[in-house]
């Protein structure tokens, strides 16, 4: 119970992040098709997303970026803004997905480090809880936003994912995530 209280904020961030990431994987081709593009463009957008994630993580590691709630707040806000602006501007999916990957690339590694640091005496348990909640998000979020997308369209789906990015930023503001 004490461990869960100390990692609850990190678990929520992992739920939102992995859910958002998984939803992008699942809906990349249908999103491209909703824009009147060949679904293969969605698959290229997915590759662009992974490139963005890789570059963000590599640059962060090279700069020896510190794991902090501030990093999560900035990444969540950036991800939310990229997705919201992408919906507003429209356009091809590849730039939107690479920018989303660049914005959110540091979230998962940072939240795992913060979870372990929150409970150093039970680091593996804390990280396991957080990664487990990420897996739950990876299952629940695509179904939820998929239903929203089916009802209101692909742009509503992306806006819901922008809300998740914003939720990451808000959760990282709470005192539940500390160093």
How is this structure best summarized?
Helix content is 85%, strand content 0%. It has helices at 2-34, 39-62, 69-89, 93-104, 107-118, 123-152, 154-173.
The proportion of residues forming helix, as a percent range, comes to: over 70%
C-alpha termini separation: 19 Å
% residues in beta strands: under 5%
Number of strands: 0
SSE string, helices as H and strands as E: HHHHHHH
The Rg value, from CA coordinates, equals 16 Å
Q: How many helices?
A: 7
Backbone structural class: mainly alpha
Please state the average pLDDT score: 91
- Biggest sheet features: none
Identify the notable features of this structure and list them briefly:
single chain, 179 residues, mainly alpha
Give a written overview of the molecule.
The chain is mainly α. The protein has helices at residues 2-34, 39-62, 69-89, 93-104, 107-118, 123-152, 154-173. It starts with a helix and ends in a 6-residue tail after the last helix.
List the helices and strands and how they pair.
Elements: H1 2-34, H2 39-62, H3 69-89, H4 93-104, H5 107-118, H6 123-152, H7 154-173
Helix pairs in contact: 1-2, 1-5, 1-6, 1-7, 2-4, 3-4, 3-5, 3-7, 5-6, 6-7
